[in-house]
Amino acid sequence: MAMTEVKQYFFQQVKQGTLSHAYLFVGDDTVQKDDSTTAIMQAMVCPNFLEMGQPCFECEHCRRIQANQWADVYRVVPETKTIKIDQIRELREWLMLSPIESHCKFAIIEQAETMNAASANALLTILEEPKSEVYILLYVNEANNILPTIQSRAQQIRFKQPTVLTFENSEFESLSAVYKRRLIQLPYQTRAALMNLTVDDVEQWFKAYDELYQWLYLKEPLTFALIQVRMKQFITANYVNYGLDYLQLLNHQMIMYLTDNQSEVFQLIESIAQKQTTQVAELLRLNQQLIEAKQYLAFNVSPQLVVEKLVLATVK
To answer: How far apart are CA 47 and CA 236, in angstroms?
Structure first.
């Protein structure tokens, strides 16, 4: 199904009160899966949904869900490449609790095919005894990679393969060559999401995170204050998630430049490196901090807090 069709399908299901208790989202594009999950949650709790036939995207509920700040959501991700039984047990305990902010709860299991036999069977017992107003969304690349007994208890939604992104015949033809070069080196999902923004927003986003990387690299003491002023509009869950991908790209290029200055890197990297020499070991620590920041974001930690923790861990 195409993205628009998926959302309209779910809006109709919510309107009719026929939303299934479990869905199997099949496909390679996590952005499409996350967008659909967000749309379902917004439709379920938006006070304007019945009147408009879709979420309003402007009320406090819609905005907080979009920013990954909704309390009634639990996300399971693989630990060391596997979803373990303890994670499913913790999920089961969470599902037993009453919702905090609304009448319903959502559990998202990413890379569900990485469950081992024990965790898959533990999940099966949850699916066999569905609770009212509890919705479980499983993300998989291929449906056949998961137990048939789990497949049979979840409604399957197959997403179309993402098309190849191109700058031709689009608004992004006007994007500066500097930013085009950076954009095409970002992960596909990040690139696809950014190309849903305006060219001006993308350029401003790049400038903001260029500055943030420079502040982190130079250990600028005023970084904490600067993010409050210069990056305020870009401290949302989605912007920060894409930004962490971009910061990792810049940091990787800086490591390449410092270990082999013949490497082809962005001009930005050369100009930052000329201001101060930093040990590669410190950049490796920064890379680990960026990875941890993405993990915090995945566990619904406030994006503002994620950025602040990153700054405090780096600029000290």
So the answer is: 22
| Domain assignment of residue 110, yes or no | yes
Same domain, 123 and 235: no
Tell whether the model's pLDDT for residue 210 goes beyond 80: yes
Half-sphere exposure of 177 (CA within 13 A, CB side): 1
- Name the DSSP class of 80: T
Contact partners, residue 207, CB within 8 Å, separation at least 6: none
Tally of domains in the chain? 2
| Helix, coil or strand: residue 224 | helix
d(CA 206, CA 203) in angstroms, rounded, equals 5
Question: Is 143 contained in some domain?
Answer: yes
Give the structural domain span for 234.
Answer: 177-315
Same domain flag for 7 and 142: yes
Q: Using an 8 Å Cβ cutoff, are 133 and 104 in contact? A: yes
DSSP reduced 3-state for 3: helix
Is 0.85 topped by the overall pTM? no
Contact 106, 71 (CB under 8 A): no
Query: pLDDT of 48-68, one tens digit each?
Result: 998 888 898 888 898 888 877
Amino acid at residue number 249: L
Q: Are residues 184 and 303 in the same domain?
A: yes
Question: Which DSSP symbol is given to 104?
Answer: -
User: What is the number of other CB atoms lying within 10 angstroms of the CB of residue 27?
Assistant: 19
Looking up residue 21, the CATH number of its domain turns out to be 3.40.50.300
Strands in 28-172 per DSSP E: 73-76, 105-109, 134-140, 155-158
Q: Indicate the SS3 state at residue 236.
A: coil
